[in-house]
Amino acid sequence: MERTVPDDFERMWADLAPVGRSAVSGGYFRQPFTAPEAELRGWFREQCAARALRVEEDAFGNLVGWWDVGSGPAVVTGSHLDSVLDGGAYDGPLGVVSALAAVDLLRARGVAPARPVGVSVFVEEEGSRFGLACLGSRLATGTVSWEVARELRDGDGVAFGDVVEGVVAGGSSSLLASVGTYVELHVEQGRDLVDRGAAVGVASGIWPHGRYRFEFAGSANHAGTTRMEDRADPMLTYAFTALGANKQARLAGERATFGRVSVTPNGTNAVPSHVTAWLDARCSTSESLTALVDGITAQATDRAGRDGTSLTVTAESVSPAVAFDAALAARVAADHEDGDWPVIPTQAGHDAGILSAAGIPSAMLFVRNPTGVSHSPAEHAELPDCLVGVSALADTLERLLR
Ligand code: GLV
Ligand code: MN
Ligand code: MN
Description:
Elements: H1 8-16, H2 35-50, E1 54-57, E2 63-67, E3 74-80, H3 93-108, E4 117-122, H4 135-141, H5 146-149, H6 160-167, E5 179-187, H7 192-196, E6 200-206, E7 209-217, E8 221-222, H8 234-252, E9 255-264, E10 270-271, E11 274-282, H9 286-307, E12 310-319, E13 322-323, H10 326-333, E14 343-346, H11 351-357, E15 362-367, H12 383-401
Parallel strand pairs: 3-4, 3-5, 5-15, 6-14
Antiparallel strand pairs: 1-2, 2-4, 6-13, 6-15, 7-11, 7-12, 8-10, 9-11
């Protein structure tokens, strides 16, 4: 059986390497509806054209390249091309490049699919510009409405609706109407596969997680003349909250991160008037997620009382636990030349989780990441493991297309 199409993966990977890359950090800035992302979308269309895949774009900018073969419910595979701010090369693009390479491999093997095959690219998977992760797949599945999504704003106050309507006509999507099964290949974002000595694995589920906006308010004042005991400094309440969140998450065996903060007026010589910070919390169960966020909020509120500041907490998005179709995961993972592939959970969100929750049977393949580092320029996967991933994806598609 053909394992790889020579040079195919590497050629595509080399195409993408310079797009949106920072000369300073080596990381990627591929925010949705920016020039680098437009270049990536153009590249995807060219790759589809070269393979005679018919490209369909929905009203939100989600793309599927269709291999119009067979009949019945389609098998779609893909991922996303956008990145977090200063992200790695693999989170997203690995799944898209591997999907195109897997189509080539199926053709090289002479597979005649019994069902249509699609290669997908979902928009704004990271939520790095408009704040809501998996925005494209949420819109395509109707999990979030256009009326809500169009009002989401980026850091400059630009509305998602205005950006999207500038590119395509916003509204609704029937892109996924014929999809029977979805498969997303992704770089692993932890070290589970390293510890197991496996190049690829299959996802069992996704931890529940959420994004929460903490708005701390105090009183702006002079940094020199205001006595320490006379201040109402929201930076102190925030700092205490960040430390407390870290401690509570560690004690509970869960995850809590403040990775984004905005300070008003943000001057060196002024006590700030406002600090807004975003908590990303992820837990093994919904109950523990609620308990963790409640605990962090209670501690922060208590501290605000002592600092003379105030606090408002808003849940911007909460994603429940995802349990991928266990029979499908077992079917994907079982009986390979190298034995069964491990079936493992993840703490990262994915479009496959949104599709799964919307009732589309979905599976995920993970490719080993030697350090486990992700959402960072240091994110990495070795080429031989990526090629094993392509072959594993082609094997999976073959099973599903029979
Ligand atoms: C997406 O990568 C997320 O888990 O934040
Ligand atoms: Mn990501
Ligand atoms: Mn991703």
